[in-house]
Design brief:
single chain; alpha/beta; Rossmann fold; five-stranded parallel β-sheet; 8 helices; 9 strands
Length: about 180
């Protein structure tokens, strides 16, 4: 297998980031216009920058995908995907469906698309456990049905809901030798 990027996609709070961490690959660091939280490091957790800088990057076509959440921009630079295509080593990223489509178009079979599925009620419960209020949950899950429908284009869909996150982690760990990860 000549895979250079593992893309996780699925609804908010479905377990994408958890499973990405279980896989243990270097992850592509994305961008945000929000300020760092305690313990976050620029270039490790996110590339922290001003909103105007991200807007300029968007206008110049330098962003693969962007979204706005709670008044802040988040996104993935096209350069980070191109670096991966250029042989920067096996990496992983969490993308929304539109970003996943672009990454797949750029990388073809070198992108392994992993969908992560969980019931809406499970996602709601996880968001509640993280301290989100009803309005925040509604905003994060507004695109739930579209996110689930987009999983059809994934190479593999892993169910992580209804207490199945541990099993989903085992499945992701089983992928490590296939991907050449020790």
């Amino acid at each position: 297998m000549d895979i250079s990027l593992v893309v996780f996609q699925g609804p908010s709070a479905s377990g994408k980031t958890t499973l990405q961490a279980v896989l243990g690959l270097s992850r592509i660091v994305t961008w945000t216009s929000r300020a760092p939280r305690d313990g976050e490091t620029d270039g490790v957790d996110y590339h922290f920058t001003e909103r105007e800088t991200l807007e300029q990057m968007m206008n110049e076509g330098k962003m693969l995908e962007t979204s706005e959440y709670r008044g802040h921009l988040y996104g993935t630079s096209l350069a980070s995907i191109e670096d991966t295509a250029g042989g920067a080593g096996l990496r992983s990223i969490v993308l929304d469906p539109s970003g996943a489509r672009v990454a797949k178009a750029l990388l073809g079979d070198r992108a392994l698309m992993l969908g992560v599925s969980a019931a809406r009620s499970e996602c709601e419960a996880r968001l509640l456990a993280r301290g989100s209020d009803a309005q925040q949950i509604a905003a994060r899950l507004a695109g739930y049905d579209e996110e689930i429908a987009a999983l059809e284009s994934c190479d593999l869909v892993i169910r992580s809901g209804e207490g199945a996150l541990e099993r989903a982690s085992e499945i992701v760990l089983a992928l490590r030798p296939i991907l050449g990860i020790k």
